[in-house]
Every structure is written in structure tokens, then in C-alpha cells.
Write a structure and sequence with these properties.
This protein has 342 residues and is of the alpha+beta class. The protein is built from 7 helices and 12 strands. The protein has 3 domains: 90 residues, no CATH class; 118 residues, Sandwich (Immunoglobulin-like), CATH 2.60.40.420; 95 residues, Cytochrome Bc1 Complex, Chain D, domain 2 (Orthogonal Bundle). The structure holds dinuclear copper ion.
Length: 342
């Protein structure tokens, strides 16, 4: 009867400590807002695990602290402690219970993953390219964007590709994270549910400017999305028509800012990851192999399309990805822009 009293007190204390631990962890508010359908099962599982952790923390800590205090040695007590050797029923119990818990968690995890990966055959496809150091998004309507626009409440599947090294696509509010692997296409399937502005950041250390490898993500209503797509399609057609004509330094500057050139090439003469563009046109450029070349149009075009062909002295080889996706007209626009940088 005396023993029973200790068990009852400890059971009550376990419940109290578990509840306090869980509500304490919960009040930290570490999670950003949940903005995708996939975030719901993930957050549900995360919450279940925090509850389990709070409970097991209490199960370990309460009997330990209780025993230290209640069963401590009294003054004048010099007797030996009770000698206990094995307890088969107890050992079977503490093997069976964790086994059941692990199997149950495995089942819950697998069905949770199935929910997260559920495929909607109507999902829109967007191509994502990651490169040192930026993101580009290509829409099936034939235009590219530096902001990832997504319609709310529709599943999209991002087909992701890297131009150079490993990157990782991560929008914390969507909860999912997926690596981009050179030479392979990886998929990221998401159903945004919350209109708002988010940010994709790279979650795989990928070189000097890894920390700045971000792009805006805008989740908009279906109607706003359709308007934006129509607008971008019209702009892309107008740009294609225009670049069929004369090269334009203004369009070149926009490309410089939006296609990733800016990450490595300064306009003010300072040395970046790559050589500055200031005063570059018609300069004599010293190459790593000891020769030199005049930075004429042919050299600039080659350096944009095949950066590995000639390495400038003082810079590492193969540091720059090939910008082969740029149309000839766009390369001409970039060259026209470089010519203006006296
Ligand atoms: Cu890309 Cu880090």
C-alpha cells in the first residue's frame, strides 16, 4: 500500500511535467507560418513527436528526481541498499513497449510521406534552374522569371536542375526541401495554400555567395496568376521581336542584373569572383596560359557561351557556368551593355 502511494504521486508528476514541457516547447514558436497543403501532415507529425518527447522526458526525469529526494539516505542510516538481480517480466515489458512504439511511428511516418507525395495529375510544371548564385524559373508558356509566381490551391511540380554544383531549394513556409544535383532533374511537388510573399533560399553550401542565393516567391490567387502569365507571355514575345533587331544596352543591363552576371562581375572596377566589366571592351586581357587577347565582341560572346575556353589570369578555371540558354540576341544585348562601361 505504501508503494502504491509513490507510484500514484509519480504518475501525477509525470503528467504535470510532460504537459509543462510540451507547452513550454510550443510557446517558443519556432515554426514559420504553414503555407502549403504538404505542411499540414508535416506539422502534425512534428507536433506528435514533440508530445512524445515531452512525455518520455518526464518518464525519465520524474522517477529519477523523485527517488533522489524521497529515498535519500537518512542521518544515521548505514544499512546496505536492497540487492536486486534481474526481473524478466520487467525486461520483457521494456523491450516490447519501445518495439510497438517504433513500429507505430514507422507506419505513421510512411503514411504521412504518402500524403505529402500525393500526385495531382493536373499539376502545373515549372522548370527551376539553380546556379552560382541565383535561381531562374521557366514557365511552360515560354518565358522566364526571377520571381517564382505560384497560383494558390493548385499543385505545381518544379523540375529542378543545377548548372554547376549542388544547391538545395528551400522555402521554410512550404516545409519541403529538395537538392538540385548537376546532371540530374529532381522534383519538388507543392500545393501553396496561402497568398503571400515568401523567399526561396539555397540550403546547401555552394560557394562564396551561397548566403545570397535567394529569390522571391509570390503565391497569388488564380485570377492574379493568370493575369501575370498573360502579361509575361506578351512581354516575352515583345522582347523576342525587339531583339530580332538591334542590340540594346538597356536590355543588356537588365539581363546583367537578372541573369546572375551581377553576382560575380562588378561594374565599378572592383574585383569580384570574376573580372569587372568596367573598361573591359577592347582592353588587352592577360590569360592564365601566358598569352593575351583583346576583349572584342568575339571574345565577349565566347566568354559568355563557353567560359572555359579562355581563363583570365588570376581567376580559377571553370568558375563560371555556361550561359548557353541565352539567345544570340540576348548575348548581343549584354555585349552592347559592356561596351557602354567605359
Ligand atoms: Cu546554392 Cu548554396
Amino acid at each position: 500500500m505504501q508503494n502504491m502511494r509513490h507510484y500514484v504521486i509519480m504518475a501525477v508528476l509525470v503528467v504535470v511535467v510532460a504537459v509543462l514541457t510540451y507547452s513550454g516547447l510550443n510557446s517558443l514558436g519556432l515554426m514559420p507560418v504553414a503555407a502549403s497543403a504538404q505542411a499540414l501532415p508535416i506539422d502534425w507529425l512534428f507536433d506528435l513527436q514533440v508530445k512524445a518527447m515531452a512525455f518520455f522526458f518526464a518518464v525519465v526525469i520524474v522517477p529519477l528526481a523523485y527517488s533522489l529526494i524521497v529515498f535519500r539516505r537518512r542521518d544515521g542510516d548505514t544499512s546496505e541498499g536492497e540487492h536486486i538481480e534481474g526481473n524478466t517480466p520487467l525486461e520483457l515489458t521494456w523491450t516490447a513497449i519501445p518495439l510497438v512504439i517504433v513500429i507505430a511511428m514507422g507506419y505513421i511516418g510512411a503514411s504521412n510521406l504518402a500524403q505529402i507525395r500525393a500526385v495531382d495529375p493536373q499539376a502545373a510544371q515549372i522548370k527551376v534552374t539553380g546556379f552560382q548564385w541565383g535561381w531562374r524559373f521557366e514557365y511552360p508558356q515560354g518565358f522566364t522569371s526571377n520571381t517564382l509566381y505560384l497560383p494558390a490551391d493548385q499543385q505545381v511540380v518544379l523540375q529542378m536542375e543545377s548548372l554547376d554544383v549542388l544547391h538545395s531549394f528551400w522555402v521554410p513556409e512550404f516545409r519541403l526541401k529538395q537538392d538540385l544535383v548537376p546532371g540530374r532533374i529532381t522534383e519538388y511537388r507543392i500545393t501553396p495554400t496561402r497568398v503571400g510573399d515568401y523567399k526561396v533560399r539555397c540550403a546547401e553550401i555552394c560557394g562564396t555567395s551561397h548566403a545570397y542565393m535567394e529569390a522571391p516567391v509570390k503565391v497569388v490567387s488564380r485570377a492574379d496568376y493568370d493575369i501575370w502569365v498573360a502579361d509575361q507571355t506578351a512581354q516575352a514575345q515583345a522582347a523576342a521581336a525587339a531583339s530580332a533587331g538591334q542590340p540594346d544596352a538597356g536590355r543588356g543591363r537588365t539581363l546583367y542584373e537578372e541573369s546572375g552576371c551581377k553576382a560575380c562581375h562588378s561594374l565599378d572596377g572592383s574585383k569580384g569572383v570574376g573580372p569587372t566589366w568596367k573598361g573591359l571592351f577592347e582592353e588587352s586581357v592577360a590569360l592564365a596560359d601566358g598569352t593575351s587577347v583583346t576583349a572584342d565582341e568575339a571574345y565577349l560572346i565566347e566568354s559568355i557561351k563557353m567560359p572555359g575556353a579562355k581563363t583570365v589570369e588570376g581567376y580559377p578555371p571553370n568558375a563560371m557556368p555556361s550561359f548557353t540558354y541565352l539567345k544570340d540576341g540576348q548575348v548581343a544585348d549584354l555585349v552592347a551593355f559592356i561596351k557602354t562601361l567605359k
